[in-house]
Every structure is written in C-alpha cells, then in structure tokens.
Amino acid sequence: MKQLYDALGTRFHPGGEKDRDKVMRESLAEVGLPAELIEFAYDDRYDELLRASHAEGIGLVGEEVGTPVVAFNGTAFFGPVITPAPKGEDAGRVWDGAVLLASYPGFYELKRTRTQGPIFD
Questions:
Q1: Where in the chain are the domains?
Q2: Which of 12, 35, 36, 69 has its CA 20 to 30 A from that of 63?
Q3: How far apart (Å, rounded) are the C-alpha atoms in residues 38 and 91?
Q4: CA distances from 21 to 6, 27, 33, 120 (A)
Q5: In this structure, what is the dihedral angle of CA atoms 42, 46, 49, 50, given to the nearest 10 degrees?
Q6: For residue 29, is pLDDT > 80?
C-alpha cells in the first residue's frame, strides 16, 4: 500500500524519527489501518517468503546491485533511482527510455553521483 509506505518513509527519512514503534503506530493511524498490524513487524512467519522474493529479484540482476529491481521484457535492472519521482507524461518518457535501453543486449549501467537527497511529494 503506497500510502503506508509514504507515511513510514516520510517519518523516518525527512522526519528523522528513530522510534520504530512510534513511526509504525502513527503511520497505521494516518492511513486508517488497524493498530494491531504493528504485531507483524515483530512476527517472523513471512520472513522465508520475503527472503525468497528478494532472492528472486536479486537473482535476475546479480549480487553487485541493490534494490529496487525492475524487470520487464525478459530483462531486469537495479533502479531506477529518481528524485522526485516523475509524474504524468514525464513518467511515460522515463519508462519508454528505460525500456529502450533494456532492449539493447549490451546495456548494463548508467550512474552518476547524487547531488540531492530524496524528495517526497
């Protein structure tokens, strides 16, 4: 759920909050989810499935990259890492460019030094 991800990330990153339980309680409340869901943060019953899903994604791109991993048309890459996230027609152009690069069998990487932190909007 994007709203929960945004609520958590905004409190941890630009908000600088370190208290995990506080962040989870406030974020669940903000998006209208039951407070009892916080119990899953300390429950390991899904850990094996989560690790398997992560291993599948990393298996597509290799161990020398991180996440996020995007896969399409039989090709997978780390990324994209973009801030702020493009919207509307800009998002479509970025996606089209990624698909175009992925279609070239010898394409592996584009990278440059980050000059700003994440922008959450």
A1: 2-42, 63-102
A2: 12
A3: 33
A4: 16, 10, 15, 22
A5: -30
A6: yes
Long-range contacts, 92-101 (Cβ 8 Å, 24+): 98/70, 99/72, 99/73
Name the pLDDT band for 36 (thresholds 50, 70, 90): very high
Nearest to 111 by CA among 78, 86, 83: 78
Give 3-state DSSP helix, strand, coil % of the chain, rounded to 5: 50, 5, 45
Report if pTM > 0.70: no
- Interval 42-81: pLDDT, tens: 999 999 999 999 898 889 888 888 878 888 888 888 888 8
CB 17 within 8 A of CB 23: yes
Q: Do the Cβ atoms of 95 and 80 come closer than 8 Å? A: no
Residue 91 — pLDDT band, cuts 50, 70, 90? very high
